[in-house]
Structures are given as structure tokens and as C-alpha cells.
């Protein structure tokens, strides 16, 4: 396995997996859930996928992006062993908190995703 063919993701997963928190990524298989004002607050359904993630303060770039709200956080998700791509139609649960995914970036080496999450 070459470094660019997934080797870096495997190295990061092996080296950092024990330091990251266990979480769940939930896919949206059903429609959105609306609040009383008609705003989408989440999505129903989907089987959870086990992930390794870290919650951190939003980066400067995230704070400058359109749609940023105080309280949004950076969520780093390791790609090692992840059999799914991450989209903004999913949510993450970690340490008892659920986060709606507002933006998704995959790093150049494909070792981790950097997400902007908003507490559900």
C-alpha cells in the first residue's frame, strides 16, 4: 500500500486512533426533521457508523466562512476504517452530544475529515 493510496490514513489511524474519541456518524435515510418554525434541525433514520473523532475550537477560516454561528466547532474525523464519505446531510454523536454537519473538507492526504459542526 502506497502512502498516497491510503497508507497515510492507515498510519494516522494506527497512531492517533487511541487518542481520538469514539463517536457515531449517522446517515440520513429518511427526510429532514423540522422545528415549529420550519427550520431543519436534523435528519431521521440511518444506521450509525463507528468513527474516531476529536472536537476542537473552530478555525479562523471556519469563523470567516458564510453561515458561521458562535458555538460552531471543528470536528476532526479519522478516515482509517471509515467505509463512507461524510456529507452535510449527516450528523455525529460523540460524548453524548449530537452535532449537525455544516461543512466538510477532506485533507490532501485523505487521512482525516475536517468538519464544522453545530450542536443539535
Name the poorly predicted regions. Answer: none
In total, the number of strands is 8
> Main sheet, how many strands, which sense, barrel?
6 strands, antiparallel, barrel
Number of domains: 1
- The quaternary structure here is single chain
The spatial strand order of the largest sheet comes to 1-4-5-8-7-6
**Roughly what fraction of the amino acids lie in strands?**
35-45%
Shape: globular
Distance between the termini: 39 Å
Radius of gyration (Å): 15 Å
Series of H and E elements: HEEEEHEEEE
* CATH fold descriptor: Thrombin, subunit H
Please report the number of helical segments.
Answer: 2
How would you state the average pLDDT, rounded?
83
Helix content: 10-25%
Amino acid at each position: 500500500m502506497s502512502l498516497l493510496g491510503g497508507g497515510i490514513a492507515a498510519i494516522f489511524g494506527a497512531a492517533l486512533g487511541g487518542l481520538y474519541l469514539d463517536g457515531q456518524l449517522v446517515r440520513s435515510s429518511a427526510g429532514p426533521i423540522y422545528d415549529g418554525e420550519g427550520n431543519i434541525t436534523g435528519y431521521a433514520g440511518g444506521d450509525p457508523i463507528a468513527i474516531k473523532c476529536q472536537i476542537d475550537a473552530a478555525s479562523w477560516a471556519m469563523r470567516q466562512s458564510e453561515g458561521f454561528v458562535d458555538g460552531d466547532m471543528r470536528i476532526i474525523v479519522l478516515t482509517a476504517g471509515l467505509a463512507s464519505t461524510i456529507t452535510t446531510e449527516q450528523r455525529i454523536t460523540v460524548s453524548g452530544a449530537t452535532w449537525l454537519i455544516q461543512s466538510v473538507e477532506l485533507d490532501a492526504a485523505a487521512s482525516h475529515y475536517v468538519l464544522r459542526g453545530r450542536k443539535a
